[in-house]
Design brief:
This protein is α/β, with parallel strands linked by helices and 493 residues long. 37% of the residues lie in helices and 19% in strands. Strands 1, 2, 3, 5, 13, 14 and 15 form a 7-stranded mixed β-sheet that branches. It has a 7-stranded mixed β-sheet with strand order 18-19-17-16-22-23-24, with helices on both faces. Strand 2 and strand 3 form a beta hairpin. The longest helix is centred in the N-terminal third of the chain and has 19 residues.
Length: 493
């Protein structure tokens, strides 16, 4: 019997790094090493020193290998999936000039509005990049930096996304993939390349940016001697281009050209996202029209407030997160960090419908409902972007795949089930971003199409399947009415 070989899939998220040691042949998750990050900032600011990510990656890989009990010599490839949109600015030596601006840093909202207007409105951006700039996008953060930190902007030799920064540390090669690049708003999903006109508007040049590999599973280089020493891995193993976290989750689910197409996914984490892999190029101003990691498209809607916002409400009420009941007449829109979908970057939470008999448990339930409603409302737009009719019974009956930390929570699952009226599938593989990165690493190590690799691995996954429940249209309509009628002063928009 040949010796076991493994790949390492890295999930570098907002709060932590996870390194999944995965059997190359079977996809068995042998161990997961973890290391925390530090996020700083008040108000709309959210920043992290990129060196924190590198140190966390080293710690997580070491912990994962130790837990697996395997020799480092069994590792044949590594890939990184990272939080999208973050702005990393490097000097000529490749070192960070300042803390990275994270995806949920909303200070660049004025720059986002200005960029939309300069190009002629949302439709013009959708036609070019597939995505309308909001405060989350990298292009808006770069313009914010040029205005508010001009000395560091002027000193910037290279601009990277979080996963690009880590991949370059691994292989010594400046590379990215179409998926993560499509979240910058300076990459065109229409042409599959950086947009020269947009770069000129932003004061950037192609020479400052990483080369775009064909897919996230493309081998862009080999692990350098210095990176191998830091990680305790063999030098020369395959390094994949990697991708953004949402694109990697799609790969981990087996969504893409070699797997499932047009099947919606709802991710419940720090942010809430709904996405699907499609061969149809999205053309909706309400969505982020991203590219997939495998050459498909990944139309996606993202909200800023999901599990952390609801946990904050539970903490304020002195309740456990599952001590919730349906909200009754209360409506709570938990937009504690501003909001991206809908585009209300300076919004705050809104509570209405209180009565004398409203209970703390109902208020917590209302927070769950408000967060779930916000991301589910984008589902019909997502399906339309895939060329599907949401009212078609076949389309409406397609199960919603529920992933992320919230998918492990009883109240989250039941709230989504009640408000969506759809059957749910909770995949048995819990670390889907890391698993997708592992499939990219396996592809780079010679394993073939990464989606096909993940689909083969998933054949042994034990998924939980929940039948559709009767849709709670009363709650749905009540929340929608509040959101539609709330004035900007009420929401702080």
């Amino acid at each position: 019997m040949p010796p076991r070989t493994v790949v390492i899939g890295v999930d570098s998220s907002t709060q932590s790094t996870k390194a999944a040691v995965t059997d190359t042949e079977t996809g068995e998750l042998l161990a997961v090493g973890r290391a925390p990050h530090v996020v700083t900032g008040e108000g709309g600011a959210r920043e992290t020193d990129p060196e924190v990510w590198w140190l966390a990656l080293c710690d997580a890989v070491a912990a994962g290998l130790k837990e697996s009990g395997l020799s480092p010599s069994s590792v044949v490839g590594i890939a990184v999936a990272g939080q999208q949109h973050g702005l990393v600015t490097l000097d000529r030596a490749g070192r960070p000039l300042r803390p990275a601006l994270l995806w949920n840093d909303t200070r660049s909202a004025p720059q986002a509005a200005a960029l939309v207007a300069e190009l002629g409105g949302p439709e013009a951006w959708t036609a070019r990049t597939g995505t309308v700039p909001v405060a989350s996008m990298t292009a808006t953060k770069w313009r914010w930096l040029r205005k508010n930190d001009p000395s560091n902007a002027e000193a910037t030799a290279s601009v990277r996304l979080p996963h690009d920064f880590l991949t370059e540390r691994l292989a010594g090669v400046a590379a990215t993939d179409p998926g993560d690049a499509s979240g910058t708003c300076w990459y065109s999903t229409a042409t599959g390349a950086y947009d020269p006109d947009l770069l000129e508007r932003l004061g950037l040049s192609v020479s400052m940016l990483p080369e775009v590999a064909a897919t996230g599973g493309t081998r862009i280089g080999s692990l350098t001697d210095s990176a191998a020493e830091a990680l305790g891995l063999p030098a020369g193993i395959a390094v994949a281009a990697g991708t953004g976290d949402n694109m990697s989750a799609a790969v981990g689910l087996g969504l893409g050209g070699a797997g499932l197409l047009d099947h919606p996914v709802l991710s419940l984490g720090t942010s809430g996202t709904v996405f699907a892999a499609s061969r149809t190029r999205p053309a909706s101003t309400a969505l982020s029209g991203f590219a997939g990691a495998d050459g498909t498209y990944l139309p996606l809607a993202c909200t800023l407030n999901c599990t952390l916002a609801v946990d904050k409400v539970a903490s304020l009420l002195g309740l456990h997160r599952d001590d919730a009941t349906p909200g009754g007449e209360a409506v709570l829109l938990p937009y504690l960090d501003g909001e991206r979908t809908p585009d209300l970057p300076t919004s705050s939470g809104l509570l209405t419908g209180l009565r004398h008999d409203t209970t703390p448990q109902q208020l917590l339930g209302a927070a769950y409902e408000g967060a779930a409603f916000t991301v589910l409302r984008a589902l019909d737009e997502l399906l339309l972007a895939c060329g599907l009719d949401p009212a078609d019974p076949e389309v409406a009956g397609r199960p919603l795949r529920l992933i992320g930390g919230g998918a492990q929570g009883r109240t989250w699952v039941e709230t989504v089930r009640r408000l969506s009226g759809r059957p749910l599938i909770v995949p048995g593989s819990g670390e889907l971003v890391a698993l997708g990165a592992a499939a990219l690493a396996a592809s780079a190590a010679g394993g073939g199409d990464p989606v096909a690799v993940a689909a083969r691995w998933n054949e042994k996954s034990e998924d939980a399947e929940l039948p559709a429940a009767e849709r709670d249209t009363e709650t749905w309509e009540r929340i929608g009415s509040v959101l539609d009628r709330a004035s900007e002063p009420l929401l702080g928009g």
